[in-house]
Design brief:
The protein is an alpha/beta fold and 386 residues long. The chain has 3 domains: 2-188, Rossmann fold (3-Layer(aba) Sandwich), CATH 3.40.50; 195-273, no CATH class; 279-381, Four Helix Bundle (Hemerythrin (Met), subunit A), CATH 1.20.120. Helices cover 51% and strands 10% of the residues. It is built from 16 helices and 8 strands. It has helices at residues 38-45, 72-83, 89-92, 96-103, 118-130, 149-163, 190-207, 221-232, 236-247, 258-270, 279-292, 296-314, 322-335, 337-351, 361-364, 367-381, and strands at residues 2-8, 13-14, 17-18, 49-54, 106-111, 137-141, 167-174, 185-187. The strands form 2 sheets. The chain has a 6-stranded mixed β-sheet with strand order 5-4-1-6-7-8, with helices on both faces. A two-stranded antiparallel sheet has the order 2-3. The radius of gyration is 30 Å and the shape is elongated.
């Protein structure tokens, strides 16, 4: 269902009427003058559910100025209540049905607080969510609301997507210019695109999964998601191949998405490990990244693999060949105490097994000491690459 959440403002009546504006949707179609942007927007969208939100002093009486079958006494009482800023839910309740019949859609008239406090601002999100169902296509109109409502509307849009599984198709603002008398209509939906990128960046910085960017990149994102999967299953060789293929695509960032352009450098910096000179350097860079974000199992795994790769390269073996890597592993186990400690620590972290080295247990009970030890061992083995 298409749902329009719109805010009703407050304006003075002049000669018994509210000031009207002709809103320009940019399609060349003439717009009729109106005092409430919600009317032409609802018609344009074909909204099946209309949620009109306003305070005790909003111009509720305007909703019944033209064509609504409402007893004259009820209209006069509403006008007086608006003038005195004392509109109540009980006053609005019996007016909902006549307005719905007039418009031919589901209507809810909702009294909201003035959003002065943190609680009142949170209440707005709760009120909006109450009127949105799962899978609704939602539009939010902030034209007549408080000046800080666009910020709340963005948060509401994010909240409704998560809490209700709704699709946010528009955040609308009719921008009246008193100097020119023009009122172009803007859809601020692009702000959600920026929010999506910020969320993906936060996901990556938290757990290193750059697959979070894939849905934002269109078809090219599938290769990035595969690279992320391969990396997180400890296959840096195949992950690097996928990243190299992705980076060679001229369309890896959507040309028509300004948010993708904005965040392009941030993403490329976060996957730059694949540009390192050899496998030991790839794995060392990954080890340091996972250590920094607190993923100690992967930090230990990639530290070990980097040390093995470096030993294979030193002995002029084939770095991707299993036999050469096993030979290097055996050499390090017998010649490098740091490697043995790291291997024991990795086993304890990965399997939850009691380490043969009793010194390992103390690190598993203290995150600060564990992180410090992994860093020390990585530096001793020379596997960290910045």
């Amino acid at each position: 269902m298409t749902t329009l959440l719109t805010f009703l403002g407050r304006a003075p009546r002049q000669e018994g009427r509210y000031r009207t504006t002709c809103y320009d949707f940019g399609d060349g179609m003439d717009a009729e003058p109106t005092a409430f942007f919600g009317w032409p927007l609802r018609r344009r969208l074909g909204a099946e559910r209309l949620i009109i939100m306003g305070t005790s002093g909003s111009m509720w009486d305007h909703l019944f100025d033209d064509g609504v079958n409402l007893p004259e006494g009820d209209h006069l009482r509403l006008m007086q209540a608006v003038e005195e800023k004392r509109v109540t839910p009980d006053l609005l309740a019996p007016l909902t049905r006549p307005l719905a019949d007039h418009l031919g859609c589901e209507v809810h008239l909702v009294l909201i607080p003035y959003c002065r406090t943190e609680k009142e601002q949170t209440d707005i999100l709760s009120i909006m969510a109450h009127h949105v169902q799962a899978n609704d296509r939602v539009h939010i109109d902030v034209t007549h609301g408080f000046r800080h409502l666009p910020m709340l509307a963005l948060l509401a849009a994010l909240y409704l997507r998560v809490a209700r599984g709704a699709s946010i198709d528009g955040i609308w603002y009719g921008a009246y210019d008193p100097d020119t008398g023009q009122a172009p209509v803007h859809n601020l939906i692009g702000l959600l695109g920026i929010a999506d990128w910020l969320q993906a960046l936060n996901t990556y910085d938290k757990d290193g999964d750059y697959g979070a960017f894939a849905p934002l990149l269109g078809p090219a994102g599938e290769q990035l998601a595969r690279a992320a999967f391969l990396e997180r299953t400890n296959n840096p060789v195949k992950a690097r191949e996928a990243l190299t293929g992705w980076s060679s695509k001229p369309d890896r960032f959507p040309a028509d998405d300004p948010a993708a352009t904005l965040f392009r450098r941030e993403l490329e910096q976060r996957v730059a490990w694949y540009k390192r000179r050899d496998r030991a350097a790839w794995e060392g860079a990954l080890a340091r990244q996972y250590l920094d974000r607190g993923d100690y199992v992967r930090a230990a795994i990639f530290s070990l693999e980097s040390a093995i790769s470096a030993e294979v390269l030193r002995s002029e073996g084939k770095v991707n060949q299993y036999e050469d890597r096993e030979t290097a592993r055996d050499t390090l186990k017998h010649s490098a105490e740091g490697f043995r400690q790291l291997n024991n620590l990795r086993n304890a972290l990965a399997h939850g097994l009691q380490a043969h080295d009793g010194r390992i247990e103390k690190f598993l009970l203290d995150e600060i000491r564990l992180k410090r030890k992994l860093k020390e061992l990585g530096e001793r083995l020379g596997v960290f690459y910045h």
